[in-house]
Write a structure and sequence with these properties.
By secondary structure, this protein is of the alpha/beta class. It contains 15 helices and 15 strands.
């Protein structure tokens, strides 16, 4: 079959983008042809992929999206495909991979009512409706159960159109047999003493991921604990607002912000705690990546994968409604108890051996290729 995969932007470090790549490669491995429509492609193009990128200009992102959709539909009319798989919400999809949460719910609960008169709202609301409305036929690949009730609430989407996938953690995130050597080499490279404490935060979109909360928690530590604690932040985002916060909190010697990179497993092995106090998060793949590397996790309960941290007994989950003081207390408790961190590490590594948290691309390809478009 000729399959069309659609996403607005591909870059190697995004969670949605990595999921797209693994599903597309799995379909290709089974003998199917892969065509990709995107506005931006960063990184290498796999052999055999037909990547099509239009030259479009628009005064706003939503106008660009509309032009992009018009262009790709015209292209597919000229050269038809058998199935269309979208990783962003838009009309005319056979399958939608639901990496993003319910836009309509956010617009109604988190935005000023006047926002719903904007052109941006009208565009994204219409594109979401084109996927989830009752009269549509788009099948939905869900990677978390958190958002499904919200889509049903706002659109009345039929339950049978939702297909829940297991997580799809890369097996290269698992702790290798020489994990201790990698950790020692990593900490030497980044000038982190073995008795220092390294916090790690990974994810593009620093605001959504709660970097401001992490910085406040780090600043709240008693001076003797803070003196030996560092935070490394990795992600594709503008660091300027947070660099100002770092300076204001007196943390300039404690925090490093790095751009997205491909050697995340080294950081997972070299750190002492993953901190992820997100404001909202459909899944949180990095949580499970930390678990399979044996890295304890401190996370907010709004993350779709936070329940795995409790299930594995590999860290602490901060309950809603969020209070900064609760995060501060939890962080100090974890950093002050090496024995607890070691127990969580052991629990995490045991969980990594038995849990079904790796098969998402295989299961997604099974569903896409088996079901009629």
């Amino acid at each position: 079959m000729q399959l069309a995969f659609i996403l607005y932007k591909y870059f190697p470090f995004g969670g949605l983008q990595r999921d797209f790549m693994r599903i597309a490669l799995e379909c290709q491995k089974r003998g199917h042809q892969i065509r990709v429509y995107t506005l931006i492609w960063q990184g290498d193009i796999p052999a055999g992929f037909d990547v099509r990128i239009p030259q479009l200009k628009a005064w706003a992102n939503h106008r660009r999206n509309e032009k992009f959709h018009t262009w790709l539909m015209q292209d597919m009319n000229k050269e038809p495909v058998d199935k269309v798989i979208g990783f962003n919400k838009m009309p005319s999809l056979d399958w939608y991979y639901a990496a993003d949460g319910c836009y309509e719910d956010k617009a109604q609960t988190l935005r000023n009512p006047l926002y719903r008169f904007s052109g941006r709202y009208k565009h994204f609301s219409a594109y979401e409706k084109a996927v989830f409305a009752q009269q549509e036929n788009t099948q939905i690949l869900m990677i978390s159960t958190v958002q499904e009730p919200l889509f049903i609430k706002h659109y009345g989407t039929q339950k049978e159109r939702f297909h829940l996938l297991p997580p799809g953690i890369d097996r290269d995130r698992k702790a290798p047999t020489n994990a201790a050597e990698i950790r020692a080499s990593f900490r030497q490279e980044f000038a982190i003493a073995e008795d220092d404490l390294l916090l790690l935060q990974v994810g593009s979109g620093f605001k959504t991921k709660g970097l401001d909360r992490s910085l406040k928690a780090l600043a709240s530590l008693p001076s003797q604990v803070k003196a030996k604690t560092q935070l490394i932040v990795i992600g594709q985002d503008d660091p300027k607002p947070f660099l100002l916060q770092i300076k204001a909190l007196g943390l300039s010697n404690h925090v490093r912000i790095l751009k997205g990179r491909s050697d995340i497993p080294r950081f997972l092995l070299g750190a002492d705690l993953l901190i992820h106090p997100a404001y909202n998060e459909n899944t949180g793949t990095v949580l499970l990546e930390a678990v399979v590397a044996g890295l304890p996790v401190l996370v907010t309960d709004v993350c779709g994968y936070a329940h795995y941290i409790e299930q594995a007994n590999a860290g602490l989950v901060v309950s809603s409604p969020f209070q900064q003081e609760n995060l501060n207390t939890a962080l100090l408790s974890i950093l002050s108890d090496q024995q607890k961190r070691q127990l969580w590490q052991q629990n995490a590594l045991c969980f990594a051996q038995t849990a079904d948290i790796y098969s998402m691309p295989i299961r997604a390809a099974d569903i896409i290729l088996a079901e009629p478009a």
